[in-house]
Write a structure and sequence with these properties.
This protein folds into two domains: 242 residues, FAD/NAD(P)-binding domain; 151 residues, Helicase, Ruva Protein, domain 3 (Orthogonal Bundle), CATH 1.10.8.100. It has 406 residues and is α+β, with helices and mostly antiparallel strands. The chain starts with a strand and ends with a helix. The protein is 34% helix and 24% strand. The strands form seven sheets. A seven-stranded antiparallel beta sheet has the order 18-17-14-15-16-13-19. The chain is elongated. It binds flavin-adenine dinucleotide. The site of flavin-adenine dinucleotide (FAD) has 38 residues, from helix 1, helix 2, helix 6 and helix 12.
């Protein structure tokens, strides 16, 4: 009986490849419910696959213990990821300012094909269209029950992912399997998802992207701040800053805690500096129309929409803008409410928050502390990274650790 990896996504492929490299000649079985594997890798990073980031640290992740995250990341850090991909023929390049690493081809297909080729070259046996419905413990190992047959395994690695984008095969079955083997699960919610907003402010701005700092305030907690692009959409807001913030909003809602979301549309400014900038614009171009002058600070259509909402005349000359209106405008730009109606849910979320607690695995081996012979890797665990390649790095690192151990 050979080790069996359940789930041929990023973490499962990594586990199988590293296990096969470590144990040449030993057959590793990699099974997946999908007919074609790697759907999520193919859609990732807008079809370009953001493989990792120049700098990856525990602070880039949320969920369970950062000590566990640190240990796993240290076992297989970014440099090893870059070397590994170079070895299998995928050169990566970093893109400023966030330091995201993409394949030089800018095609996710390159990443998937290289992983599959390496798995085949190392003798990993891929079994597709095998949805594991049940895992039964036996004296000598496990029985993996599929729709029309059973596979036996001495060691099982659960790499079944989370619940995001369920049509790719990651439908949450893995949590049930883990629970049936003695694990608990932290309630799951979508993370890195676009937000739907009340009202119609956003709709007229659809397609406009701007730099912003999204701030989530949860009762009695330090406000969460995410700076980056904010993209206005017909339903609300998206873009990296919003996706990162969505997780905090979701968890607060799950816990029933009062939460508000707003955006600083002049990121980096506080009241004094923003007010000074507006006064500066007045000094430089006293006859300029307010709405045109504001376009130096944020997209013109957003500036106009803000003025409309505040009922401040955009055609007014800068020199005529009353002090109180200027201060009202500054306050609004620094704290623009994003009244969240809901998140867009699992079909639009990039990742899952919650899952199997990190305390239930041994970070030196990814072995279950609840069920001997079982290992868990990737998104099924209670850890989720911010946007920027961190979730894949978790998949590669945890896959490497399990691959050495099995
Ligand atoms: C649109 C989108 C874009 C993304 N872009 C990026 C990015 O650029 N960079 C980044 O770092 N992260 C990105 N992510 C997140 C990243 O894709 C995931 O965190 C990562 O793929 C998780 O890897 P995994 O192997 O743990 O799970 P998955 O990739 O979800 O793989 C799990 C596999 O298990 C299989 N499976 C599930 N249950 C069973 C079962 N019962 N029996 C058999 N097989 C089963 C599934 O079919 C699937 O193939 C993105 C996610 C999405 C949705």
């Amino acid at each position: 009986m050979n080790p069996v990896v359940v789930g041929a996504g990023a973490a499962g492929l990594a586990t199988a490849i590293f296990a096969a490299r470590r144990n040449p000649g030993r057959e590793i079985l990699l099974i997946d419910s999908a007919r074609k594997i790697g759907a999520k890798i193919l859609v990732s990073g807008g079809g370009r696959c953001n493989v990792t980031n120049e700098v990856v640290a525990p602070a880039d992740f949320r969920g369970g213990s950062s000590n566990v995250v640190r240990r796993v990341l240290n076992s297989f850090p970014v440099e090893k990821t870059v070397s590994f991909f170079r070895e299998i023929g995928v050169a990566l390049h970093a893109e400023p300012p966030e330091g995201k690493l993409f394949p030089d081809t800018n095609r996710a297909r390159t990443v998937l094909d290289a992983l599959v080729t390496e798995a085949e070259r190392r003798g990993v046996r891929l079994v597709t269209e095998f949805p594991v419905r049940e895992v039964r413990r036996r004296d000598e190992g496990f029985e993996l029950v599929g729709p029309d047959r059973t596979i036996f395994a001495r060691t099982v690695v659960l790499a079944t992912g989370g619940r995001s984008l369920p049509k790719t095969g990651s439908d949450g079955t893995g949590y049930r399997l883990a629970q049936s083997l003695g694990h608990t699960t932290i309630p799951t919610t979508p993370a890195l998802e676009p937000l739907m907003l009340e009202g119609d402010f956003h709709a007229a701005l659809t397609g406009i992207s701007q730099e912003a700092e999204v701030v989530v305030r949860v009762e009695s907690e330090k406000p969460f701040r995410a700076r980056g692009s904010l993209l206005w959409t017909h339903l609300g807001a998206s873009g990296p800053a919003v996706l990162d913030a969505s997780r905090v909003w979701r968890r607060a809602r799950l816990e029933g805690r009062p939460v508000t979301v707003c955006a600083n549309l002049l990121p980096g400014d506080d009241f004094e500096s923003a007010d000074r900038r507006l006064l500066g614009l007045t000094g430089e171009q006293p006859r300029a129309m307010l709405r045109n002058a504001l376009a130096a600070l944020l997209p013109a259509r957003v500036a106009q929409a803000v003025l409309d909402r505040l009922k401040i005349e955009g055609e007014m000359q800068m020199a005529q803008l009353p002090r109180e209106s200027r201060r009202t405008l500054v306050r609004a730009l620094l704290d623009w409410p994003l009244p969240v109606r809901d998140g867009r849910g699992w079909n639009y979320a990039e990742v899952t928050a919650g899952g199997v607690p990190l305390g239930e695995i041994n970070p030196a081996t990814m072995a279950s502390r609840k069920c001997p012979g079982l290992h868990l890797v990737g998104e099924i665990l209670d850890v989720d990274g911010r946007i920027g390649g961190f979730n894949f790095q978790w998949a590669w690192s945890s896959g490497w650790v399990a691959g050495q151990a099995i």
